[in-house]
Amino acid sequence: AISIAIIPPTPGSLENPNKSTTHEGDSTRHVQGNLLAPAPTIKRRKSQFLKNRSPSFAASFSQIEEVPEIHIDVPPFYFPKNPEDLGIVDAVVEEKRIRSVFAQSATGELTIDPFLSICKSILGFPSFFGSPFLERVAGEGAAQVTLEQFLPFWEKYLKSKDPFERFFNLVRNPENNYIEPNDFVIYLSELAKYHPGLEFLSSTPEFQSSYIETVIARIFYKVNYFRNKKISLKELRESDVIEYFTKADEENDINDVIDYFSYEHFYVIYCKFWEFSWDTE
């Protein structure tokens, strides 16, 4: 706790309003004027200060008596969280795990299957992020990635970041500081292609595309409260998007992931808009 002694102004205090004393060895501070705030320097002496004042003011000023000090105990009010509480992993440990995965490859390159262990087990992304993640690091259409390619990306966008900032940095266009609707398409396309509860959509590309569009619309409707089609990191932190992306990756029945991803919900929305559409578009 911090003990602060507030001393009322006395006649002599106006000569040096910045005067303050701190007693070493305890937490008591004696502060004149505004609490802990430096006051402007007043160069005039007391006689000059009183020179142009009325007699009654000068008389009342000279009668000021010293008042006992007032001690206020201010309890601690800021408790910073540990990095572990924020989901931030020790960077040294994480880098060792990443290097060990690459070391198991005879060529020093990882294809999509071994890369998934880094994507999901080490970095905590959904497994359907694997292929887009690899291409984000190694280039569009790439089928493998090297340690030399991966580490700079990890250091710039993922190292010592909490799960929200990692998700944000991976999904967004690196030229923007927000997530746009199109940024989700490549990741949700992987979900629609490989999730066991959505495999039937592969035979109906039109429905697959509409499903992806609907999921994105639901995300922005719930998360993007500024309605500018730009999800900020702050909005992402205050949402449950990452939680439901993880659930969509782990649940075999996509309809159990009610928020955002439920196919049953999509179908109801799709049919309702079909009824409203005069040209069936």
Task: Give a verbal description of the structure.
It is built from twelve helices and six strands. With 281 residues, the protein is an alpha+beta fold. The strands form two sheets. The protein has a four-stranded mixed β-sheet with strand order 2-3-1-4, with no helix packed on it. A hairpin with a 5-residue loop joins β2 and β3. The longest helix has 19 residues, at 205-223. The chain starts with a strand and ends in a 5-residue tail after the last helix. The model is unreliable at 19-37 (pLDDT under 50).
Short description:
Helix content is 45%, strand content 7%. It is built from 12 helices and 6 strands.
Key phrases:
281 residues; alpha+beta; four-stranded mixed β-sheet; two-stranded antiparallel ribbon; 12 helices; 7% strand; flat
Q: Distance N terminus to C terminus?
A: 66 Å
Uncertain residue ranges = 19-37
Which outline best applies?
A: flat
Task: Note the quaternary state here.
Answer: single chain
Strands across the major sheet, in which order?
2-3-1-4
What is the arithmetic mean of pLDDT?
Answer: 83
Strand content: 5-15%
- Find the count of extended strands (DSSP E, 2+ residues): 6
Give a short account of the largest sheet: 4 strands, mixed
Based on helices, strands and strand pairing, what is the structural class? alpha+beta
